[in-house]
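In this supplementary section we document a worked example of the pipeline. Step one takes a protein sequence of length 205 as its only input; no multiple sequence alignment statistics are reported here. Step two produces a three-dimensional model, which step three serialises into C-alpha cells for compact storage. The input and output of this example are shown verbatim.
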Amino acid sequence: MIQLYGSPLSGNTHKIRMALTFLGLPWDERLTDAAARRSDAFAALTPMRQIPLFIDGDFTLRDSQAILVFLAARHRPGDWDGRTPEERGEIHIWLSHAANEIANGPAALRLARKFGLAIAEDQAAQVTARILPVVEAHLADRDWLAGDRLTIADLAAGPYLALMGDAGIDVAAWPAIRDWTRRIAALPDFPAMPGWPAAPIEGAR
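The serialised model returned by step three reads:
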C-alpha cells in the first residue's frame, strides 16, 4: 500500500491527499510532525527531511509537485498533466508558481501568522502582492487554471490559496480565487482539511 508521510495542517501534504482521493487509491498516512522529521529514521527516507514523502513499494518520491507529476503520469496521463504541448506547458507554469511565488508568499505568511514561525514577513507580503493579482486575473473568466478540467495545476496551487485566510489575507478581496477553491472543494469525495472544508456549490464541475 502507498505510504504518505505528512501532517493534517500541511498544504503540501494535502495536495497529495487530494490526488490520491480523487484517483481512488488507498494509502496509509503517517503523521510526521517536526520532531519526527528531525529523526535519523526520517532522514534515512529523505535527505531533505520534508513532507510530503510518498512511498509505493520500493519507489520513494519527495516534493509535492514531483509526486503530483508522477501520479498524473501513472494514473491520469493527458487528463491531469496536459493533452497537448500547450496544456503541458501551462500546467508547468502553475507548478512553478506553486513551488515559488505561492510557497514564498501566501504559504510563508501562513507559517508566520498561524504557527508563529519567524520568516521575512515583508518579503513574503511583497511576493503575495505580486502573485495574487496574477491568479485572480487568470481565473476571472475560467473555471480551472489550465484547460477545461481539474489538472495537477489546480492540485498544486489550490491548498495554500484556499488557506490564505490563515495568513491574514482577506479572501473576499479575491473572489475569483475564492470561487475556484470552492469549486475544487465541491468535487465528489473532496477530502476536507482544517481551514478548507468541503463546500458544495451550485453548478460545480
